[in-house]
Structures are given as C-alpha cells and as structure tokens.
Amino acid sequence: xxxxxRFSSRHSLSGQEREITIREDAPARFRGxxxxxxxxxxxxxxxxxxxxxxxxxxxxxxxxxxxxxxIDYEVSQLVQSCEWFYVYDITEEIYRSLLQMxxxxxxxxxxNSFFRLAGIGWQMVGGxxxxxxxxxFESAVNNAVEALxxxxxxxxxxxxxxxxxDLSRRPEADLTGAVQHAxxxxxxxxxxxxxxxxxxxxxxxxxxxxxxxxxxDSVSKAWGYAxxxxxxxxxxxxxxxxxxxxxxxxxxxVATYLAKKSKIA
Length: 265
Prior knowledge:
Layout: H1 7-10, H2 28-40, H3 45-56, H4 67-81, H5 84-99, H6 104-118, E1 122-125, E2 128-131, H7 135-150, H8 154-168, H9 175-194, H10 200-206, H11 215-231, H12 241-264
Antiparallel strand pairs: 1-2
Helix pairs in contact: 2-4, 2-6, 3-4, 3-5, 5-6, 7-8, 7-12, 8-9, 8-12, 9-11, 9-12
C-alpha cells in the first residue's frame, strides 16, 4: 500500500526556511534523516548497508544477519561516524538506488525540504548535491542560466555551471575557481554583445553604453577584484565564500542583463 502524504503535505504547509549556517558539516540530525527517509521509501537496512559500505569502502559485519536491530544499528553507526562529506556521497548513492524503485524524486524533495528547514547550504538537483545560496543568489543564477540558454550562449552558460560546481566541491570549495568561471561567463557575454575579443575590463572602457552608469564602474571594479584574487594569484590572497558568492551572483545578474539587452536590440 502506497504511503499517504502527511498532513503538512496535504495542506501545503511547511516550516520556516532557516538562514544558511551549515556547509562543511553533516549534523547528526541530517545523518539520521537520510536513513529515515530512505527506509520510509522502501530501502531495507541491508540495502542501505550495501550502499554505505560501497561508498566508505567498508566491509559489512558478517556477524549481523537480522535487518532489525543488528544491520539497522550497523547502518546508523557507519553513517554517524564517517567524515561529513561522505554523508552527501551516501545521499547521492541512495538517490541512484531509489531511481529503480521510482522513489528518487520523492527522496530528493524530502532531502531538499530538510536542507531548507535545517539551514544547510546544499540542495539536490537531479540526484547531485550542489551548493545552495540565499534566495536572491539562487534566483540570480537561475535567471542567468535561462537567459543564456534562450540566447544560445552555451559557453557562458557552461562557465556559470562550472562556477557552481567549484562552490559545490567537497570537502573544500574551490573559491578562486568559482570567481574565475563567473567572471569568464560575464566576459564571454560581453565579448559576444560588443563583438570585441578584448578583456572585460577593456570592453567596459571601449563601450561606455554597454551598462548603465554607475553600474559599469561597479562591474569594472569587480573585474579588478577578480583579477587580483583569482586570475593573478598571490600567496595568502584567497576570496572568502561570501566574496565568491557575491562575484558569482553579480556576474549572473549582469550577464542576464546583457543577454536580454542584446535580444531586444
């Protein structure tokens, strides 16, 4: 018999989304939730043990035969004791296993709901766990991807995806890489719109009407920052995550503006 939706789902109710405070961690509550959700959707403790041991390169305890409580306890211990980033690897593997059972989308929805309610800065998209920013950040990036796809600027779109991938790297994000790819996406669009192969900094100087003032000055300074922090690296000069997200978000917004402006023109 199919599991019936809970009261909150039936009435479209949800808790308040919390500010993101967790990135490089997998709290005990999340570790437990992953296993709970997987079991609710049909995976047995023995199925989960196989997945977890495959990810962690562990050997299942041959003394544990019964699903409950032995294998179930073993599963819990493995998940609660492993390094934080392996928990997200395990989550992705569970998604792939649930694909065969037709439960993967529900699993993804449940995991993403937990991320939002727990203030965890990750999200699952198509079974892959990626970085999640504030609502404004997510909106800026999604709008950019849509605008670049609509205008058939696949290279710039690819650079935005690479920036997100760098922010999503585990156990440590590639912050300089995210800045580089984000500005590369903006530079790519600016070159296409202006039909000029110069650097973004030079294009902004050559075409003063490309962006409204004083936004052009802000973007020019962002380009200088990216060149200093990511393109021409110096020891001890690494952007913070907040700075990297700011550059990615700004690049996405300006790239969207240029893509839409060129379409109108």
